[in-house]
Amino acid sequence: MTELSTLEQSRLLRTPLPGPRSQELMARKVAAVSQGVATTMPVFAARAAGGIVEDIDGNRFIDLGSGIAVTTVGSSAARVVDAVADQVAAFTHTCFMVTPYEGYVAVAEQLARLTPGDHEKRTALFNSGSEAVENAVKIARSFTGKDAVVVFDHAYHGRTNLTMAMTAKNMPYKHGFGPFAGEVYRAPMSYPFRDAPEIDGKLAAARATAQIETQVGAENLAAVVIEPIQGEGGFIVPAPGFLAALAEWCRANDVIFVADEVQSGFGRTGTWFAVEHDGVVPDLVVSAKGIAGGLPLAAVTGRADVMDAVHPGGLGGTYGGNPLACAAALAVIETIEAEDMLARARQIEERLLGRLRELQANDPRIGDVRGRGAMIAAEFVDPATGNPDGAVAKAVAAYAHSQGVITLTCGTWGNVIRFLPPLSISDELLDDALDVLTAGLEQVS
Ligand SMILES: *Cc1c(COP(=O)(O)O)cnc(C)c1O
């Protein structure tokens, strides 16, 4: 694709970081933007493509973040750029609820094809992951006539009032922002690295459903909402059988099983949706982040009878399913299929897991290496106690930043470094980034 030829695919530090132009802009940012909106990197972007983000001082960074799992097909994928340019020239907005357009319908058709299960499905489109999660809850309540929602330890579902209640971690997401929405209950997650070894997927599910039955009651429960691989919570991959047993319990108890695939979905883990690895067919699937190559789009897709339980006019929003975002989403799907990017995600998994496990074998601070596809993480611990060590993760990430590698941390204790490269990244850039990480681990010891 043309994008790669225009931006050199190599890491380059031309100035000390941050460079003079970024320093100038950061001073303007501090004076104009709420400090509540913080940044991981101190540099300002000018261009991005393939696996590189170039800043306004000409420094080139290896992108292991994809703008938090968004630019899965790359930050300026040719098909996405062209499709959005064509659409912007035709019209930017009519509001689908006023004068509908084909792009919205076409995205809904594609989501019916790509989400798990071959039952009849419907979709509704929104602007953000949080908004879509909220709407999945509204839809589940409308269908079941019940109120309660169950979420899990370490969960992240967003920053709006209802989704803050659903999110587990206080700082920085909830602190000082309450009171929160009611009827949200938390159940224990399957966390193989931290669970006792005998807690397999089935037992972890039984532990959760027993607590739900005693503390909530299935007769009050509208939905169980779960990330098939937890994102902000630490890239926690539940034990095999956990998701299937939960989904089975939901089916037996007239509870809607909602897979929040905002981070794990849309090709990132080597399948279209992460639940496919567990052979689970959710009632509702929530998509966002990777769905539209960086344009704001989110979706709830699922069983036609559930989605159509809502009265006409009950779902919507001014911008939901904006025509530019829909054009981008269709181009993202075409790109993933034409360039066999699901296979690329599996290659990236092999490369990242291989290198990280080599590092782990010689470094007891790396307690766990896990993940699927281009959603891989290393969890750092104190070797003496096994307790989470956020300081090491933070120091290694800071070293990577200083050397021109964009990495993100996550986890309830901030002790996980996550790898979320765009699927358009080259092997050379991945290897270079891992060399930097290796040097960072030596530096920090
Ligand atoms: C990011 C995220 C959200 C929230 O999406 P926004 O677009 O930031 O509102 C919800 N769920 C999961 C799993 C996420 O990773």
Automatic annotation (TrEMBL):
Domain of life where this protein originates: Bacteria
Pathway: Amino-acid degradation; 4-aminobutanoate degradation
GO biological process, one term: gamma-aminobutyric acid metabolic process
Keyword Transit peptide found: no
Recorded coiled-coil stretches: none
Reactions that this protein is recorded to catalyse: (S)-3-amino-2-methylpropanoate + 2-oxoglutarate = 2-methyl-3-oxopropanoate + L-glutamate; 4-aminobutanoate + 2-oxoglutarate = succinate semialdehyde + L-glutamate
UniProt entry keywords in alphabetical sequence: Aminotransferase, Pyridoxal phosphate, Transferase
Alphabetized Gene3D superfamilies for the sequence: Aspartate Aminotransferase, domain 1, Type I PLP-dependent aspartate aminotransferase-like (Major domain)
The protein, known as: 4-aminobutyrate aminotransferase
Species: Nocardioides albus
